[in-house]
Amino acid sequence: MPLAFRNGGFAFGIVGTVISGIIYAHCVYLLVSTSRKACRRSFVPMLGYTETVENVFTHGPRGIKKYTILARRCTDVQLLLNSYLLICVYLVFIGNTLRDIVNHDYQLEWDTRVFIFLAAVPLIFTTQIRELKYLVPFSAIANALIITAIGITMFYILKEPITLENKSMWPAWNTLPAFIGTVMYALLGIEYVLPNENKMKRPEHMLGNCGVVNVAVCFITALYTIVGALGYAQFGEDTKGSVTLNLPANEALAKSTQLLTITAIILSTGLINYVPTDILWRKVQHKIHPKRHNFAQIAFRFGMLVLLTAIAVGVPELEPFVGLTGSISGGSLVVIIPAVIDTVFRWPAGDFGRMNWILVKNVLVLVFGLLVLGIGTYFSVVDIIAIYEKE
């Protein structure tokens, strides 16, 4: 988040983060409410993200029904891209963090790529876990470690006097996409909302003024705004891809935040890998003899990790990867798809409210998502190309 504020400026960063949080919460509401209405209409107990999209298009207007298969495939592709890009970001982050720690302590000059390969080793085991119920405890531990790391990081941020001198207040035109992409990356997680709701004892608590979504997004948005604003105010233009990389490399307490974050990422990668692996495995398992399913799953999961590691090694810089992931996944999964399915579901009945204000609102949300996806992705790719040109 301090990186986002570096790109967006202090004043705009605060306003932009809050607005992004509101848009995110609203799009989650659109997804969950549409999924519930689709379940009631089709008399099914629950639907996942892709199943909701498929159901809405199947029962949509006549001209829309023919795009059902395309909509399902596009949603699956976006879910795959989101999860696998996140794992790439995690590999790059761990590699950069280990490089700073090890090279400083042992006076080495090893390249970041070496540490990315090392980071992939523990992920071999976490990505092999197949049951969601076994992954949730790891995620809970990871959250506790992250909160601890945030507390220590805030200690270092507030340790020295904070000043807004020489800090930009507003973004430049070419840094605004990076700001939005980074904020959307930080807010990612919409693909887990429906699976979590489907596992809740009281799913009705997901929505509502004091529901799980609103409470969680308010808390996260407030936390991100505080960390982003204070982190940028402290480190300014020297702010790195992760604020933990700005902490003193020679202090044990500062190193602990990096080690805590690395551990949290390793523990949570299995959950990140769950959705894409489940999608791909369901598409190929019928082609494999049941007796070979176990070996095939092991080989498939390991092969995907090797591929993702190769991608991370190819682009070992954290900042453009964060922006790319946020732009692609944030623009499509978080904004575009929820707005589209809500519109398609309401279209046959013309249920758009007085003066079609819901339709107008959905169109505006859709335009915002397209801008995030198109412009953000373009600038992130330009940054990645620039890295290769430097080398």
Automatic annotation (TrEMBL):
Q: Tell me the protein's name.
A: Amino acid transporter transmembrane domain-containing protein
Q: What transmembrane ranges does the database entry give?
A: 12-32, 79-98, 110-127, 134-158, 170-194, 206-232, 252-275, 295-315, 321-341, 362-388
Recorded hits in Pfam families, A to Z, give: Aa_trans (PF01490)
Its membrane topology is listed as: Multi-pass membrane protein
Question: Residue limits of the Amino acid transporter transmembrane domain?
Answer: 1-381
Q: Which organism is it from?
A: Aedes albopictus
The question of whether Cell membrane is a record keyword is answered with no
Broad class of the protein's primary localization = membrane
Sorted alphabetically, which keywords does the UniProt record give? Membrane, Transmembrane, Transmembrane helix
The answer to whether UniProt assigns keyword Transmembrane to this entry is yes
Q: Which PANTHER family match?
A: AMINO ACID TRANSPORTER, GH04538P
Q: Which domain of life is it from?
A: Eukaryota
